[in-house]
Amino acid sequence: MLKNTLLILFISPFLLLSCDNRQKEKKLLEREQQLLEKEKLFAHKESEYQALIKMRDSIFSKKDSIQIMKWPTEISGSWNGKVICIESNCSDYVVGDQRNDTWEFDSDSIQLVTKIISNSNLIRLYSGRFENNEIKLNFKTDSTAKKKVDMNILLNDISDTKIRGTRTVMTDNNCTAKFSVELTRSSK
User: Fold this and answer.
1) For residue 167, how many C-alpha atoms fall within 13 Å in the half-sphere facing its CB?
2) What pTM was computed for the model?
3) Contact 129/136 with Cβ under 8 angstroms?
C-alpha cells in the first residue's frame, strides 16, 4: 500500500504537468493562429499599399504627357445656332421645325465639349472631336433614361463666320430625324 501511495505521489505531478502542457499547447496554437491572421492582414495591406504606390508613380509619370484638349481659336467660343428638321420618321420631330440656340465650344480638363444653351439654360452637353477640319459631336442618354437617344452632329463646312453641317437623332423606337445646322459667330 505504501508502494502504491508513493507511486501515485510520484506520478501525479507528471500527470498535472501533462494536463497543464495541453492547456499551454492549446493557448500557444490559438496565439499562432491569431499571429497568422495578423500576418495575412498585414500582407494584404502591404499589397494594397504597393498598388497605390504604383498608381501614384504612373500618374506622376503621365502628368507631363497629358495634353489639355482645346478647340482651335477660330471655333472656340459662342455661336448662334439655327437647326431645322429636314427629314423625320418620328412623331417628336416634324420636317420644318426650327430651333435657335446658343452653341458654346468649350473644353473641360480632358475633353472637348459643346454646350447648347437656350434662354440661359443648359439644354445639352455634347462631347466633341476635331479631326481633318471636321467637328464631330455626340450625345447619348445614360442607361437610366426612359427613352434612349443618340445624337450625332457632323460640322464639315467651317469658315471664320459660319459653320454648317447636319445633326442626326436616333431613338430606341427606330425613330430617325435629320437636321441642317448653321452656326454664325456670336457678337459677344
Assistant:
1) 22
2) 0.63
3) yes
